[in-house]
Amino acid sequence: MTQLEAVERKLQVSDTQGRWETYAPRFVALQEQNLTAAAVPDWLARWSALSAELNDVGSKLSVHADLHTDDAAAQIRYQEFLAQVMPSAQRAGHALIQKLLSVPDYTPPADFALNYRRFRDAAALFREANVDLGVVHEAQKNRHSVLTGNQKVMLGGQELTIPQARQRLDSPERREREEAWHALADSNLKVAVDLDAVMLDLIATRRQLARNADETNYRDFRWKELDRVDYTPADCRAFHEAVRDEVVPLTTELMGAIATQLGLDRIRPWDYNRNNLLDPQGRESLKPFKTGVELEELAQRAFAGLDQDLAARFQQMRETGLLDLESRPGKMTHAYCQYFPTTNEPFVLMNVVGTAEDVRVLFHEVGHAFHGFYSGDAQPLVWNRWSPIEFVEIPSMAMEFLTLDHLGHALSGDELARYREKLLQGVVGFLPWAAQMDAFQHWLYAEAPEKLTVADLDHKWLELDRTFHPFVEWEGLNEGIRAKGWQYYHIFQAPFYYIEYAMCYLAAVGIWREARSDAASALARYKASLRLGSTSPVPELYRATGVEFRFDRDYIRGLMAFLKEQLQA
After folding, report:
1. Is 26 exposed, middle or buried (0-12, 13-18, 19+ CB in 10 A)?
2. 49 within some domain
3. What is the count of structural domains for the chain?
4. Contact predicate 394/507, CB 8 Å
5. Which terms in the Gene Ontology molecular function aspect does this entry carry (predicted)?
6. What is the C-alpha to C-alpha distance for residues 225 and 205, in angstroms, rounded to an integer?
7. pTM for the full model?
């Protein structure tokens, strides 16, 4: 059996599993049970198992649709599940929450107290009208997946996938980078009008979701939906300002130094890739592997050097169809980690093309996978697994750093130094982008005019891009291309989920700083924090890893000073 065949087998879902009638009797039994405080633990366990089964089916259908964006049957099957099963499940789940909240004399144990409070808050936010509207919302998001998953790029007479074309942006030859950039821009512009329409539909739907829930705007609705209780929109605005003042100058300085060394008179869009800054010596980008299997073997050895249990978990993923790494036509272009709770199995989807950036992304996504494994091992209830989103990127981003000392088999001393430098530069380059993404969404969902137009979206993005990326020179180019920078995965698929990357990157740097003096203790804290799942508040989860939950100006300034020192070294 090939690896792709193993993946397809892992994602199989029977027709019965895709029908509400399969699950309805068990929801009814839970609802009709005479529930006392003493009976709650067993009742919760049965509800958790039922929820896990539903999540399993939805996750597998979603992944299968993402692997086959050009397969109408796969898309229809997923959409039918969302439309025919999930609304009934959502209504039944709300009724069970209400039942649990009404149990007299029930006090949740410590490891369920947070999720009990989240249940209470979710019940207050629930509106019947939003159940069917949620189906519309998912269908609108899926239109984005299909449009972008089927994108092609014509470059040099070849038809390439988006990831394959993006690889050319790392070429040391400026003309090759420019050609790739224009080809990608042409491809993006071909779908831009369609994506504009999808976004306007999404905005209208999201505003209606907020109105239905009696919230002033979608930001306030989403704040409650995401259970953001440890910080405020004002804290986010302060973060945007701190990045503008503390990080943008450092990014500008880094790019200025690189441009000087390469003899570039200015930085053009094809000269700036925040994930992989140009090599100041004009060397080819690192290409540590050629195939997905080679990348797996590279990672396997790195995990073995870091920790035997982590290595065993990754080996399990390799052997049981839980990895799909190769880039193919018809496959969605993003990378992510999905989760199948009934078997406690994470699934990683990527589009690798042989770059060092692929190595980093694999460690990132497998860090998520470790989070799923460890929290699933330690937390029987499905709601207690994973973690709040302000922490969920720490397992992934910290893994990018924790593997640094275990790549000597794949990279020479000089190559490893370059890889390390790129990783550190990536943090600096990422923070302005994260601040821009978050600032755009605060404007979009809390400040934008009621009669919002595509021109408004474009104008705001241009304003923010000039603030957070002032060192990129667009003179003589079509700024309509620049204005469409907001047409990015998370804006469509995961509204308001982006500042968490910045929070967690700052924490990951702090974990790495501690690991440089005591690697064993840092790794032990890392694994212990993953086992806590979603049973502890965000600040406590951060403290469990040995860092603080902070993203204020002073903290950012201190970490930037540390990164600058490391880069100079």
Report:
1. middle
2. yes
3. 1
4. yes
5. metal ion binding; metalloendopeptidase activity
6. 15
7. 0.91
